[in-house]
Design a protein that fits this description.
By secondary structure, the chain is α+β, with helices and mostly antiparallel strands. It has two helices and three strands; from the N terminus they run αβαββ.
């Protein structure tokens, strides 16, 4: 009877460990995707600005995109804080990269 209790406790502990690790990984991946979608919206605005030849420099700030109407105020989905207007999108060839300012 004692061995049965030890085996059942071990199985229960293993199931709990697997469940906690899986839930943590799922939550982190979800947060990464939320940030990716928000940053994608911002870079799409910058892409449209460059395609319309309104933006000429190799980088454009989020504040400029908002003033020009190519983006709107965006909230970081993790911190629930608005992205700074000093955050910028850097253009390198056909690649647009969002850099968040503190």
């Amino acid at each position: 009877m004692r061995n049965l209790k030890i085996v059942l406790m071990t199985l229960l502990l293993a199931c709990i460990l697997i469940t906690v690790a899986t839930l943590y990984k799922v939550q982190k991946r979800h947060e990464e995707r939320l940030v990716l979608v928000t940053e994608k919206r911002i870079t799409e605005g910058a892409t449209n600005c460059y395609w319309d030849d309104v933006c000429k420099d190799s980088y454009v700030t989020l504040g400029e995109l908002i003033e020009l109407g190519y983006a709107k105020e965006e909230v970081n989905p993790i911190t629930k804080m608005y992205y700074s207007h000093n955050s910028y999108i850097e253009k390198d060839g056909n690649t647009y990269t969002f850099h968040e300012a503190s």
